[in-house]
Amino acid sequence: EAAVRTHVRGRARARTTLLSAALLEHALDGAVAAPVARLLRTITSARAQDEAAAVRMLDGAVAAVLAIGATSGRDLLDGVTVALELVATERRVVSSAVSGASDGGAS
């Protein structure tokens, strides 16, 4: 996640509005709107053994984010999606590097 933080901080001011860059800075420090915090908690705490309940909780959390403003909720949801994709990509890269190192680099 450190790479994501560095990436966002390094590009936010040049690639978005001053307000959006400030909001991203706050988000990187953990200060987000309550519905976004709920969404992130729901994503990170979902349990596979009760998939139906997890889907209902996720649907509710997404709906709460989408209810923010006229378009702000959609924008926030898009931002969360991109951030999660970056984290997943970073983890795959790290996992691949660790896996390659542990098997002597053989693939």
Give me the secondary-structure topology:
Elements lengths: L1 H14 L2 H11 L5 H12 L5 H16 L5 H31 L5
Helix pairs in contact: 1-2, 3-4, 4-5
Structure commentary:
This protein has 107 residues and is mainly α. Helices cover 79% and strands 0% of the residues. It has 5 helices and no strands. The protein has helices spanning 2-15, 18-28, 34-45, 51-66, 72-102. α1 runs antiparallel to α2 (18-28).
Computed CA radius of gyration, to the nearest angstrom: 17 Å
Low-confidence stretches: none
Task: Label the overall shape.
Answer: flat
Number of helices: 5
Estimate percent helicity: over 70%
The share of residues in extended strands comes to under 5%
The SSE string, one letter per element, is HHHHH
**End-to-end C-alpha gap:** 26 Å
Largest sheet at a glance? none
Give the class from helix and strand content and strand pairing. mainly alpha
Q: Which properties best describe this structure?
A:
single chain; mainly alpha
Compact description:
By secondary structure, the protein is an all-alpha fold.
